[in-house]
Specification:
12 strands; four-stranded parallel β-sheet; binds 1,3-dihydroxyacetonephosphate; alpha/beta; binds iron/sulfur cluster
Length: about 300
């Protein structure tokens, strides 16, 4: 039996569902039942009711799946796959901020740990942040955490003055304005799409700033034939597979999230064989962490 066949047999035995983020390795995307961005994966986890979910993505995403689907066994095939940006806002530091700024609405990018989500009012993802923040009262003081780049891009787009937590994605921060200029010179007919975790200077040079799901939709529907892609290179696999006649150029080939790449097919096989490692959350913490995610899903179902 091939590795894929073994995974398929175990998957059927446990009635398991494999969810994978758009940045995972191509072979993981190919064995997944569903590949998507953070928002799509959260929705899927909330509605799938699978007895076993194998979550191929970084830890906060698997925690979100467990938070929304507590009755499922949620397996995170490589427990070392974390998101450094999510770790930049600890629950203690956020609680401290709240104490000093009573009345400030705390909006957390979904890239936060479950423990930190217990200290925030509402979550958003890169796929819904603009709509969600545009709908908040204009006179309300807001803290946006933990991504200062995404927060600054939202402030610029919406004319808001949210306080920004000093966090960032080390992977997207590697994309520099000179990379955009050079890529445009090399591929003058291509549209430049970047992720809003890039710096505001990079976003200003791009044609669109979109979530990973937003980029996939955009390239599918666009009449353009060439695109320069400014995000983690794992997304190119799906783009090329879904759009065989279009051309995709990575804005900068070094844009790799090492954590997303930690999950291998062997990890998935062992996780299914052993039904471990599991995401386990303290029930009180899970309930508290669920509230801001529920608010997000209620506002923008
Ligand atoms: P998306 O929600 O756009 O998939 O982004 C998640 C992420 O971690 C980007 O670095
Ligand atoms: Fe975290 Fe950045 Fe990796 Fe996304 S790309 S999971 S924000 S480190």
């Amino acid at each position: 039996m091939t590795l894929e066949e073994e995974i398929g047999a175990l998957k059927a035995r446990h009635k398991a569902l494999i969810l994978a983020h758009n940045y995972t390795r191509p072979e993981i995307q190919d064995i997944a039942d569903f590949v998507g961005d953070s928002l799509e994966l959260s929705r899927k986890a909330a509605e799938c009711h699978a007895p076993v979910i194998i979550f191929c993505g970084v830890r906060f995403m698997a925690e979100t799946a467990k938070t929304l689907s507590p009755e499922s066994i949620v397996l995170h095939p490589n427990p070392h796959s974390g998101c450094p940006m999510a770790d930049m806002a600890s629950p203690e530091a956020v609680a401290e901020y709240r104490k000093k700024h009573p009345g400030t609405l705390v909006v957390a990018y979904v890239n936060t740990t479950a423990a930190t989500k217990t200290e925030v009012d509402i979550c958003c993802t890169s796929g819904n942040a603009e709509k969600l923040i545009a709908g908040l009262p204009a006179d309300r003081k807001i803290l946006f955490l933990p991504d200062a780049n995404l927060g600054a891009n939202l402030n610029n787009k919406l004319g808001r003055k949210m306080d920004l937590w000093p966090g960032c994605c080390p992977t997207h921060n590697k994309i520099l304005p000179e990379h955009v200029t050079a890529a445009k010179e090399k591929h003058p007919s291509a549209l430049v799409l970047v992720h809003p975790e890039c710096t505001p200077t990079v976003v200003a040079l791009a044609d669109r700033a979109l979530s990973t799901g937003g980029m996939l939709k955009f390239v599918r529907e666009s009449e353009h034939k060439e695109f320069i892609i400014g995000t983690e290179c794992g997304i190119l696999h799906r783009m090329r597979k879904e759009n065989p006649v279009k051309q995709f150029y990575p804005l900068e080939p070094a844009v790799v999230c090492p954590n997303m790449k930690k999950i291998t097919s062997e990890d998935v096989l062992f996780a299914l064989r052993d039904l471990a490692p599991r995401i386990e959350l303290d029930e009180e913490m899970r309930r508290k962490a669920k509230a801001p995610i529920d608010r997000m899903l209620e506002v923008l179902p």
